[in-house]
Amino acid sequence: MLHTPASAADQRPDAEAGTPWHTLTPDDAATVLDVDPVTGLSTAEARRRLGETGANQLDEPPAAPVWRKVLALLTEPMTVVLVIAAVISALVSHELETPLVILAVVIFNAVLNLVQERRAQDSLVALQDMTVTRARVRRDGKVTLVEAHALVPGDVVLLEAGDVVPADGRLLEAAGLEIQEAALTGEASPVGKSTAAIADPHIGTGDRVDMAFMSTEVTRGRGLLVVTTTGMGTEIGRVAGLLGSAGRETTPLQRQIAHLATLLSVIAGIVVTIVFVLGLLRGTDVADLLLTAVSLAVATIPEGLTAVVAFTLAMGAGRLARRGAIMKKLSSVETLGSTAHIATDKTGTLTLNQMTARELFAGQRLFEITGEGYRTDGRLRVTGEGAAPDVRAALLGMALASEAVVHDGALVGDPTEGALVVLAAKGGLDVEAARTSWPRTAEIPFDSDRKYMATFHRWDAIGAGAAVEPALAAWGEGLAPDERTGTRVFVKGGPDVVLGRCAWLDTPTGTVPLDAAQLERLSSLNVAIGSRGLRVMAVAQRDVPAADAALASATSTPQELEPLARDLTLLALVGIVDPPRPEAREAIALAQRAGIAVHLITGDHVGTASAIAADLGIGGRAVSGAELDALTDDELAERARTYGVVARVSPEHKIRMVDALRSDGSVVAMTGDGVNDAPALKEADIGIAMGITGTEVSKGAASMILTDDNFATIITAVREGRGIYDNVVKFVRFQIATSWGFVLIFLAAGVLGIAGGAPFSALQILWVNIIMDGPPAMALGLDRPDPDVMHRPPRPVGEKILTGSRIGRILLSAGVMAAGTLGILALAPGTEPTAGLATEAGTLAFTTFVLFQVFNLLNVRSRETTVFSRRTFTNRSLWISLGVILVLQVAVVQVPVLQGLFTTTVLDAAQWATAVAVASSVLWVEEARKVVSRTAWSRAR
């Protein structure tokens, strides 16, 4: 026998840690947890319990302390090389200035990396906070949304298909409830749930069918759960420690960059070796030569590539989130730019998701319905001549076979159901009174396989009639008390499905058989309404025979109830419109200009979907799911790209379309919001879930979440994704051009004997390296997308970061920089350095090379657009960084204290003008290339 502790504190689960919850009845579980399932916990009590139990979340490994991160940075190969350079400098020169500057560079790089990593991590943490799971919970007698981490034992949670179970709990209600528990038990098939207690206290987790467990997914039905355990005390929490912490994600682009960095490092190593050998052959002091070689290695090995790419992707993900697209995976950020197909649903994505009933066929008459959205200040207006028939039975079915609640124009629940409830209210039905007078006893939940929902209601002729049907009340007064009650089932769903379950038709003169002629007329009417761009719903009813009434209870499964939802009487057809979003047409047109094909994949009829697609500018053939079934996978792969509309689809059809569109290597984005969309979202290269209407399961399966459910946001995200990839390419171009400029300068100087084979000092090399890896280069990651970014075709998914054309541009820039720098060294007076003393030529060459980087930084910001445009001044961070660099470069050259450190001497105005003029040559050469490229592109068009 269960012992109920005397005090409320003792009744909480902490005091009952070993309670076998599955052995308790629902009432007993609620008693132990000290909660009324009807009202739930009070806000104050929930807050108090949260203080005792802690947050409902799994423990995460603690972040590495700063000292450990610093130690990791100081032991990186390039840092070790710099420290070695400092030691060599101290031993050779017997002075501390140069070693201290080198160590300052080490510290600067460490701080820069820490800041870079912190900003990237903060951006990703912010994204995680945006995707927090919420649960529908009863508190203070009302249903409210509560963040899952704030749940406490005793909270009463409402579950429906598409939800992720937020905590372990005992089921209080289960209507056709099935839960996928593979994440916990490994069982592939969903588990049917019930509320009956299980006697065996030691039964396995997978057999506790009256329990639901954290992180499992509701695939079908509806349930009510009282939370028993949260956080690390849950079943998934107990094994969390065994799962280990996931490694940091690296994207394909990051892996490609890492491979590129390794390759360039090998090349740089070879070049440094050659420079060192040439210096030895020339008789250069070994210690000085070694210091120069080490510094050159630091500058030419692109160790900053991977860090900056990670930073750019993370910051880009943050920018996408601010525009309404939350990227759950960094790999999806780079994949966005390659998107070639978008397979999108209609409701809420291309439309406003404000369903409004426009037409009603009931009582053999057609009605027009006025009013907009979810306000009830409209009316039903019969078309044609004659009095309007009584349609209250149809309106009653709409109200009862729905979960939606509408109050003061605000909807809680499904938009389609909201349109039906509003229609019932416009027709004069008191929806709340009807639901009270006709209590629900059982239901068959809607799912994508059935395509209908059925609810069973107990009626009383006197009570029901008083609220809804006065004629029924008058009729009931003449009956014996045991004849005044009964059970009625109301069904709503797609017309083809509901009509298939109907045998009768409601008319003003009574119920008549639904013969072939009537069925053909209704089918034609369905097509006609759909061709006007309206979604059609059918409503039907049946009085359950008394012999079967007992079966219509909450304990019956949908399979047991389905036979009772046959031989129905059709009450109405309803035409519902969801107005297209004004921005959707423009977004689709922009996608098509960018070479992205848009496919409308919907559960609507072909006629309805085609009308909407035509209105939105989506071309191509319109086919049905049944037509897809007739095609082999190979046939579908050949034809899928010609399909603009695929209607009446199942989840399997969506997966087949995704696979068919991907068959040629194209990147496919797929939108979805329901639990049955999850497989297709996982299958797509970019699964896109709806942040407002989407289920938790669909959000979990997706790699991108739209916070506004707006198709236009997808196109914005693609534009940003292309821009982010472009920014990565810009940085790669800039850094490698600088590295190869160094390589060419030192190789040529070594071979030709210019400046004694050592054109720059070690600290000068390190200073340029700071520019190459520092804030100016990082600021490239904040550039806005090019104006022409959506006028290009999608980037091939396997495209290398260094294409032939990009290598050509890099070599062109590096060659110009090397030629200009070497020209100054070779032609200017005072070229040969003496015992490490500064020369005007050396200072002028050093300054020119630094200015080359400034001009080249402007070059790489656009592939084809001239630098002489307003866009050049849009990146504020870049200009601030460049300003700081220029000020510091002037100081390095003109300030006596710094002259000694960097081996420089004062330059006069004419020499500064010379440096600017020579350095700007890299800009003029690139501008000429852009002109040639734009001209060739225009002719090709």
From TrEMBL:
UniProt-listed GO biological process terms: intracellular potassium ion homeostasis; intracellular sodium ion homeostasis; potassium ion import across plasma membrane; proton transmembrane transport; sodium ion export across plasma membrane
Annotated source species: Sanguibacter gelidistatuariae
Pfam family, one: Cation_ATPase_N
Membrane-crossing segments per the record: 70-92, 98-115, 257-281, 293-318, 740-758, 764-782, 810-829, 841-858, 878-897, 909-925
Protein name (database record): Ca2+-transporting ATPase
Gene Ontology terms for molecular function: ATP binding; ATP hydrolysis activity; P-type sodium:potassium-exchanging transporter activity
Database matches in SMART domains: Cation_ATPase_N
Known catalytic reactions: ATP + H2O = ADP + phosphate + H(+)
Location in or out of the cell: Cell membrane
PANTHER family on file: P-TYPE ATPASE (PTHR43294:SF20), SODIUM/POTASSIUM-TRANSPORTING ATPASE SUBUNIT ALPHA (PTHR43294)
Gene3D superfamilies, per database record: Calcium-transporting ATPase, cytoplasmic domain N, Calcium-transporting ATPase, cytoplasmic transduction domain A, Calcium-transporting ATPase, transmembrane domain, HAD superfamily/HAD-like
Organismal lineage: Bacteria, Bacillati, Actinomycetota, Actinomycetes, Micrococcales
Matches recorded under PROSITE patterns: ATPASE_E1_E2
Membrane topology field: Multi-pass membrane protein
Region described as Disordered: spans on this chain: 1-26
Keywords assigned: ATP-binding, Membrane, Nucleotide-binding, Translocase, Transmembrane, Transmembrane helix
